[in-house]
Design brief:
about 110 residues, mainly alpha, about 65% helix, elongated, Lycopene cyclase domain-containing protein, Lycopene_cyclase_dom, membrane
């Protein structure tokens, strides 16, 4: 199977869209309206830049990407933009699941 041009980019974009649609159309947790969520994402982003930057630096990479499977946009410290999309989707999906569980538990207690 050849994913040239979309091998990493398309799933990264799809993950963000799916997570946002699940919140908007299914879960309705209100997570995106909370300042604490966005502060959490800033903290995650800071650590992601440190760790991902170390792992993907072009002068001594630990993680290699097929250049045909990414857009080629890298910032800061050579981090592929797709990593930020996957990071957003992953952390948001976990927080949405956690929030949904807390909301259901609160309803059971009432």
């Amino acid at each position: 199977m050849n994913f040239t041009g979309v091998g990493y980019t398309l799933p990264a974009v799809a993950a963000v869209i799916i997570v946002c649609l699940v919140e908007r159309m299914v879960l309705h947790t209100g997570l995106f309206r909370r300042p604490a969520y966005w502060l959490t994402m800033l903290i995650v982003l800071g650590f992601q830049i440190l760790v991902d930057g170390f792992l993907t630096k072009l002068d001594a990479p630990i993680v290699l990407y097929n250049p045909d499977h990414i857009l080629g946009l890298r910032f800061p410290w050579d981090i592929p933009v797709e990593d930020f999309l996957f990071g957003f989707a992953l952390v948001t999906a976990v927080l949405l699941g956690w929030e949904r569980t807390l909301q259901r538990q609160a309803k059971v207690r009432q």
